[in-house]
Amino acid sequence: MKPIDLARLFLLAALWGSSYLFIRITAPVLGVFFTISLRVIIAACALGLYGVLAQQLSTLKTRWLSYLLLGLLNNVIPFILIAIAIVNLNASIAAILNATTPLFTAIVAAIWLKEPLNKRKIVGLLLGIVGVAILVGWSPLLLSLSVILGGLSALIAALFYGIAAVYARRRFRHNRATETAIGQLVGSSVLLIPVTFTSIPNTVPSTEVILAVITLAIACTAFAYLLYFQLIAKAGATQAATVTFLIPVFSLLFGKTLLGEPVNFGLIIGLITILLSIWLVFNTKH
């Protein structure tokens, strides 16, 4: 990977890793649904403006139903579930659990696309289960109903990301990547508009919360999507996918240094185990 692409990779990981931090700041104040609605709608407006200027909205009218479905699978449901996970757990643990997305993608691809699960992939999937068990059972948080709810929310979000990835691979194989990103955000916004008006908070949020929402939408969503697809174009999809390994590391770093989230030996072992399982699945030849 060229130095400029490596810089893009680390910047993208830092942006997506920090998104958990900003959700942790905003969701307890604004509520999960209003936070995610603002994130998606503001990002869709920003990225939509880019699409108009770059003339990359040619399929929006003809494939609107597909974009609605992709937005539901890849934004609306997982974003809401991740926010629920962050509120009930913390930013770093939610990010580590959500890093299991490639494992769920492999399972969905095996069922949907009939892609074979060889021995190395199976070992990776089993190791991922062990990593999740270590992380949840040996985390610095006391095991409770809310912690279990948060853990399940993060894992179900990862499952929906896996379903969305396979669906996008089948439905948007010949689409321009940026156009797919814009289409799914516009579709997500349409679905979330009713939620926005029914979940408006009663009090005016602080400046810190407002800035956190704007940063989450513009930097961590709209700009991050453009950066991601630029990285795919320049370095390739496989190289871009390695951002999965870095996101939980940045989230752990930000959570510890900026939010004072607890870190113990179990969390570190769980993170290493999950990342090893992802590596086994990533580095498997068909």
Can you characterise this structure?
The chain has helices spanning 3-30, 32-54, 64-88, 91-98, 101-112, 119-137, 145-171, 177-198, 207-235, 237-241, 243-258, 265-282. By secondary structure, the chain is an all-alpha fold. The protein is built from 12 helices and no strands. The protein is globular and about 50 Å long. Helix 3 crosses helix 4 (91-98), helix 3 packs antiparallel against helix 7 (145-171) and helix 5 packs across helix 7 (145-171). It has one domain (3-282). 81% of the residues lie in helices and 0% in strands.
Q: What features would you highlight for this structure?
A:
286 residues, mainly alpha, 81% helix, 0% strand, globular
Architecture blueprint of SSEs:
Blueprint: H1 3-30, H2 32-54, H3 64-88, H4 91-98, H5 101-112, H6 119-137, H7 145-171, H8 177-198, H9 207-235, H10 237-241, H11 243-258, H12 265-282
Helix pairs in contact: 1-2, 1-3, 1-4, 1-9, 1-11, 2-3, 2-8, 2-9, 3-4, 3-7, 3-8, 4-7, 4-11, 5-7, 6-12
**Number of contiguous helices:** 12
Shape: globular
- Proportion in β-strands: under 5%
Beta strand count: 0
Q: Helix share of residues?
A: over 70%
Residue-averaged pLDDT: 90
The assigned structural class equals mainly alpha
Give the count of structural domains.
Answer: 1
Q: Tell me the quaternary state.
A: single chain
The radius of gyration computed from the alpha-carbon positions, rounded to a whole number of angstroms, is 18 Å
Name the poorly predicted regions.
Answer: none
- CA distance, first residue to last residue: 23 Å
Q: How can the largest sheet be summarized?
A: none
- In N-to-C order, the SSE pattern is HHHHHHHHHHHH
